[in-house]
């Protein structure tokens, strides 16, 4: 394998070039595998879906980070004002307490990412861990009467939080971690019925992949003759549902195990937080037709 760093393309910022290199850096993969396995092994039960945000319809982590980031930013503002050391210290403590749910929700989401995303996510986590360390030191200095050092460590913590936030933005908006990867389906599939094949082309209780307006569609014919159709790309990270397992009227994504009800696309198990677009079906003249619900 050629490990020579690629030259920075003309017009690309140095920051984006560095981030792209992080996405391709393989040396941290053994650590990522170890940490990911440890996070997935924690016996959270249904609590895992709660932390993913299935109940909310999108990840909880972006909401959870508002408390520590907001508290620490407010503490920095108070540090710039005379006589507000006590209030600033209180906000530093609130931020540290709020960092716990932010860490937990971020960890369960990170453990289910694709490899390039998990590499950036690891650096994101390291930056935020450094921030927690700096703010812990800041609080200790403040409560022992050394406010000057407390403010200095607070500034270092805020800098680390900024780096972590930038990496989080890269994850969300450039790498689409946490986004609904099936959201575009209703916008690109045309209205009306679409024929996807003859009935005989769909073996009973077997997932078959077809295409409607270049959108992959999962089609399943049950033993009673009923036919179900869902968008094939998993809303979590676009995994191929047609390669997944059919159990108890649901299809499970082969990549991360999200389960969707065949009748309506509802996500009954995470890490997916959004349901699958579902299609109405009919059998006409020996052929299966589908249209968006």
Provide a descriptive summary of the structure in words.
With 293 residues, the chain is α+β, with helices and mostly antiparallel strands. The chain folds into two domains: 14-174; 185-292, 3-layer Sandwich (Rieske Iron-sulfur Protein). It has nine helices and ten strands. α5 (66-79) packs antiparallel against α6 (85-110), α5 (66-79) runs antiparallel to α8 (147-174) and α6 (85-110) runs antiparallel to α7. It starts with 13 loop residues before the first helix and ends with a strand.
Number of domains in the coordinates? 2
- The outline comes out as elongated
The largest sheet, given as strand count, sense and whether it forms a barrel, is:
6 strands, antiparallel
Beta fraction of the residues?
15-25%
In short:
By secondary structure, the chain is α+β, with helices and mostly antiparallel strands.
Set down the secondary structure blueprint.
Layout: H1 14-24, H2 29-41, H3 47-52, H4 61-64, H5 66-79, H6 85-110, H7 115-143, H8 147-174, H9 185-188, E1 194-198, E2 207-212, E3 215-221, E4 227-231, E5 245-247, E6 250-252, E7 259-261, E8 267-269, E9 278-284, E10 287-292
Antiparallel strand pairs: 1-10, 2-3, 3-4, 4-9, 5-6, 6-7, 7-8, 9-10
Helix pairs in contact: 1-7, 5-6, 5-8, 6-7, 7-8
